[in-house]
Design brief:
By secondary structure, this protein is an alpha/beta fold. The protein is built from nine helices and seven strands, in the order βαβαβαβααβααβααβ.
Length: 235
Amino acid sequence: MTAPILITGAGQRIGLALVEHFVANNQPVVMTYRTRYAAIDALEEQGVHCIQVDFDSAEALTRLEMTIRAHYDSLRAIIHNASSWDCEANNPDFNQLFDNMMRIHAKVPYQLNLTLADLLLASESVADIIHLTDYVVETGSPKHIAYAASKAALDNLTKSFASKYAPNIKVNSIAPSLIIFNQHDTPEYKAKTLKKSLMGIEPGCKEIIRSVELLLNSDYITGRSLPVDGGRHLK
């Protein structure tokens, strides 16, 4: 049996697109989700193992690890996609905001990378860990200070885990800028955001899928961050 890929936070948007891509290519997937969207029912009908996890719960990681171990002897990869786009303007409890951002974006990947390493090492081929970070790792963000700091922490974990697990597990990051707009985004916001990159387009989830496939299929790339920002760093 082909070892599955574990994807966190895959109930919608980029995570969901990744799951659907792997399912279409006969790659087994086990995914976590916090909110049960309608897409979860369809995924389960296709044989995807969907696990409800609230990473705000102190016991969540232990329960997730036990569930994974009860069903699988190995993992092909872990893709850390779970994320929260919270900011100081929407959350005046700065202490809680910082802790929440660090937990979901840094502590959860840190712990899963350590506790599930033996399953990755049991993979028949070289395994992968992929962290979804953010363009703001390079620049910071005055409107999302805690968020940017936590994604920077995740970027740093990439380097440490790459050194720790080489050559049996490759560890890399993907750092996107705009990929897809939200449904509530206004035309004015979209126009302003599109002007921030050289390419000036909404690229869609296919760009992250292609980046993930590049890293999974590479025999040599590790400890790196792959920017998917449309040349935004040059604007």
